[in-house]
Amino acid sequence: MRISDILQLGLSNLWRTKLRTMLTTLGVIIGIGALISMVSFGTGMQKNVTSIFYDNDLFTSLRVLPMKIDINRALSGDVGSAMGAMKSSRTIDDSVLCALGNMPEVSIVYPEISFSVKLRYRGQEIRTELRALPQAMGQYPPHKEMGWGAFFSSDSALEIIVSERQLHNLKIHLPDGPLNVARTDTGMVYTILPSDSLLGSELEAVTLVLDAEKIAENPLIGMVQPPFREQVTRLKIRGIKKSADGFERPQIENTALIPIGAEKKVPRFEFSSMWTLLGNMGQKNKGYTALYVRVHDLRQLSVVRKRVEEMGFGVIALADQLEEIKRGFIFLDTALGAIGAIALIVAALGIINTMVMSILERTREIGIMKAVGGSEGQIKGIFFIEAAFIGVFGGVFGVLLGWGVTRIANIIANMYMVRQGATGHVELFYLPLWLVAGAIAFAIAVSLLAGLYPAMRAARVNPVEALRHD
Amino acid sequence: MQTFIQASGICKEYHKGQSGVMALHGVSFSAQAGEFLSIVGRSGSGKSTLLNILGGLDTASAGKIYVDSQDLAVMRRYQLALYRRTMVGMIFQSFNLIPSCSALDNVALPMTFAARSKSERTQRAKDLLALVGLAQREHHKPSELSGGEAQRVAIARALANQPRLLLADEPTGNLDSHTAGEILELLLKLNAERNLTIVMVTHDVVSAADLSHRVLRMLDGRIVEEEEFRRMA
What we know:
The complex is a heterodimer of chains A (470) and B (233). Chain A has 470 residues and is of the alpha+beta class. Chain A contains 18 helices and 13 strands. Chain A folds into three domains: 3-53 and 325-468, no CATH class; 67-110 and 289-312, no CATH class; 113-287, no CATH class. The two termini of chain A are 27 Å apart. Chain B has seven helices and ten strands.
């Protein structure tokens, strides 16, 4: 028997019982639709989470801390060991910085320095955090993209990169900035300035320093009034970061950046926290709070990490968390997939039911086919192909249904989020090609499995009895 | 003369619950190529069972049966299917056409199992329908055909893969006497012109004697009488 004949015969047999075929196929369509929408929700979540990691380029970097941290112990409330670890902390000084910088795997290493300042521009003031970064970081995300202007020209230039949000707080609007559109504060007077006139203009960073003269005049003055005075450093606006859309990144929006070399040119008395204040008094050289280490390639991370741990320092790498997150997602995907698979199993029972019914109805026909020379294999093939067709149609239309459902769900979810005040567009579902192909293959496999028993039963029909059958 | 069918000691036992029912008690007979052989007997005499075994639809419990020197008793199921497809054509009292298929498609069905091309099937099915005198009815469904026409379609189908043996199980049982005569005439013509060996099971002793070279009479699973009416040419 020719393959084309089997295919044609299978199709025409299905066509003869249109309604029943459609209802059975509908079962598979719904099963696959459920599977597709469930799993694409899981993969969509995973993609969103991991893309945050990738977009921010978090996999090729780690942080070096003065002490070894056992996160699990600390989280489980073992304060004693956490305190013990603190005592055994080592100082991160410039020699450590150099040692790490000389490793061939390391591309960038810099100490994490940040301090709080007041920014003053056109009479407006905001309090914000200043973070020092080397110029080399400009080639990596998230610093790679600059809304307006550019990253630092050198490590020592007196430059600053501010965010659109900070400008907004300084009552300045960029005519082409996204925040300009969402101007909601009523009664506030904003100055609208084009980015060209902002870039290159100077902004004042105001810090507090110990007033040596005041203390020299009267050592007891500190008891009466704070022995500080304001120090102003002029910084050129080099770049402006656009307000992030989609997932908000407050860390980036509320921090202004300065070159790592310029940090020393901003005099300040650090008392950002009680810890540092006490630390300053207790130790002559407190070292850095942490180092940022960046490697050339993801795979080199473990080498560097091992070296740092051998040196006795603690390491935090976000890549660790990602592994944990991925494990969680495998579990989530399996659970979601299982729900979809249940729907498909019900559909498979529908296929078995339909086909057993049609074999009962067609018993005489099977007897005739056998009498005129149809072999068991050929008859098996004829019934098997019917199940396969149900699987193919069910799979293809099921994927379309699942896709349609996720599109609608996504639109509704976005409408809801916009009403809740979110900006930007979120893609909740992700339908990769492997999922489409896998779902169709799964539909066919399940249908064939369901067709196995009916086909076998059809092949084993006794022709003598079948021909007597009415 | 060439012996075409050689059956010896065929037994058939049906199992119903604990007890077995013997349908055939050691049937032996032979037939020559081109012979028209009729088997007569009452219902339940085992004549249809014998025909089914001869057609490879059923298997004997014991005994040997050779058709064209092939031993049916040792054939596996797929070999029997091939035997049914190529060696024999069968017609039945109730015609056994597939109701959803046209006359043409019914005739083409055995050729589909034989993997003939679509154009070849259609051409040969048209030729066969013309041979049985139904050239104008090829697109009619079985329900739109009279009993005589339906049996002619069944005969055309039986001839599709050019078998050497035609088995007919009460072919005129559902037909009026006039139509029955026409069908029997057609069978006689095929036997004479194509040298087709025919084994026919029938109630109709008179017409069996008219047409056949030989008539076997069966009773309770045995052949009890054999009569020769005309000599093979």
